[in-house]
Amino acid sequence: MSKLHDKVQKTLNQYDLDYKVIDCDPDLADTAAFCEKYNFKPEQCANTILVVSKKVEPAQYAVCVVLANARLDVNKAVCKAMGVKRASFASADQTVAQTDMMIGGVVAIGVLTHPILVDAAVMQQTEIVMGGGNRSSKLLLNPQELLKLPNLKVVEGLAKLKDN
């Protein structure tokens, strides 16, 4: 069985989250490949995306959680929730530096230094798959478990369904 990132495991234990670990081929950790290989639908997978404010010093970050079949509304919903005028997706380097996690495995669980914004659609699922902090494991949990985390806010309309 794959090991979760230490920060993720510590947070799961600290806040007593109920979860299962899914082993993942590191080459298939990206959402589309993972869904195809392990028979999950995009609406079952919750991606964690780091957003950074623009033209604000020091930079402000938010950890956003959206379903894989949706697009994060950075320009309106995220900026409003962060209380900033402009924001953008954090770069891969910024994401690694702020989360200490691998791209393809970043998960809000374990990043308690920034606000966590969760799209309301995530909370409507019965189970979601999230990263394990690395590329070799994923978490399977009821999204209601996320409510145990500090600094978490559920935001209606944080993301919009992707056009197919």
List the helices and strands and how they pair.
Layout: H1 6-14, E1 20-23, H2 31-38, E2 46-53, E3 61-67, E4 70-72, H3 74-82, E5 87-89, H4 92-99, E6 116-119, H5 120-123, E7 128-131, E8 137-141, E9 152-155, E10 159-161
Parallel strand pairs: 3-6, 6-9
Antiparallel strand pairs: 1-8, 2-3, 2-5, 4-10, 7-8
SS summary, helix count = 5
Number of strands: 10
Distance between the termini: 35 Å
Which strand order do you get reading across the main beta sheet?
Answer: 5-2-3-6-9
Morphology: globular
Share of helix, binned:
10-25%
Kindly name the structural category.
alpha+beta
Strand content: 25-35%
Helix/strand order, N-terminal first? HEHEEEHEHEHEEEE
What can you see in these coordinates?
23% of the residues lie in helices and 27% in strands. The chain has 164 residues and is an alpha+beta fold. A hairpin with a 5-residue loop joins strand 7 (128-131) and strand 8. The radius of gyration is 15 Å and the shape is globular. The relative contact order is 0.25.
Brief rundown of the structure:
By secondary structure, this protein is α+β, with helices and mostly antiparallel strands. The chain contains five helices and ten strands; from the N terminus they run αβαβββαβαβαββββ.
